[in-house]
Write a structure and sequence with these properties.
The chain has 10 helices and 5 strands; from the N terminus they run αβαβββααβαααααα. The strands form 2 sheets. It has a 3-stranded mixed β-sheet. Strands 1-2 form a two-stranded parallel sheet. Helix 5 runs parallel beside helix 7. The chain is mainly alpha-helical.
Length: 246
């Protein structure tokens, strides 16, 4: 099937052919043999064989009744957590589905969202900035970007790429905790985070603060200036529930 479809659609060799590790032999070897005999080429330049997702060390099978549907899982935990769950292990290796690993991916997805939200809101509150796309000029950030690209260039090592992502998240949290936000660094960090998330297929769009939210921030500041700390705490707690750190 693959040899015929590739020939009909692409009229020659393709760049990448994917499939599960169980198809490597004899299925894919057979395809190469067919393509060489019929069209004098090896069908693809690169062959990517991914490990399967097991459940508690066993192969998922409808006959065993141990199947978890991807669509249902995404609806339950969100696509960001689902992608982090899959990408935490190099694609060639099998991934053993475990609740603790899934819960860690959910927590990680929330940490990424919280980090971006915290810095974006701080930029808006302190500098009235909501659009932050910027060229990456900071040398430390350029180094992290190089690490990210190198990891993905090395047989699509998503686990190491995610390590680079966490370095950016850590720096975002550090900048957010500073009394006065470093505008240039904040914008570059958010730009780099978006870049990494886009590559991994985990876009995380955060809506700017509403006028009502900004009003609450103003009231919180006013209460602090008037030393009405009970009222200030009340406004801060309202903002905190929305993920707005002041």
């Amino acid at each position: 099937e693959c040899v015929v479809m590739i020939h009909n659609i692409f009229k020659g060799k393709i760049d990448i052919h994917g499939g599960g590790t169980e198809l490597k032999f004899p299925h894919h070897d057979n395809e190469i043999a067919q393509a060489k005999v019929a069209f004098n080429h090896s069908l693809a330049n690169y062959w990517m064989h991914n490990g399967r997702v097991d459940l508690n060390g066993e192969k998922m099978s409808k006959s065993l009744g141990n199947v978890i549907m991807a669509k249902e899982l995404v609806e339950q935990i969100g696509y960001g957590a689902y992608r982090l769950f899959l990408l935490s292990t190099p694609y060639r290796q099998p991934l053993n589905y475990r609740e603790e690993l899934l819960n860690q991916s959910i927590a990680d997805d929330e940490k990424i969202t919280s980090a971006k939200k915290g810095l974006l809101y701080k930029l808006q509150i302190e500098k009235n900035i909501t659009s932050y796309q910027k060229e990456i000029t900071d040398l430390a950030l350029q180094k992290i970007r190089d690490e990210f690209i190198f990891a993905l260039s090395n047989d699509f090592n998503t686990a190491n790429a995610i390590t680079a992502l966490w370095k950016v998240v850590k720096m975002i949290n550090q900048v957010t905790r500073q009394k006065v936000v470093q505008e240039e660094m904040a914008m570059e960090l958010l730009t780099l985070l978006d870049e990494f998330l886009w590559v991994l297929g985990i876009d995380r769009e955060i809506q700017p603060l509403s006028e009502d939210d900004l009003e609450k921030v103003f009231l919180w500041k006013k209460a602090r200036e008037e030393k009405d700390f009970l009222k200030a705490d009340e406004y801060r707690n309202i903002l905190k529930e929305k993920g707005i750190l002041v």
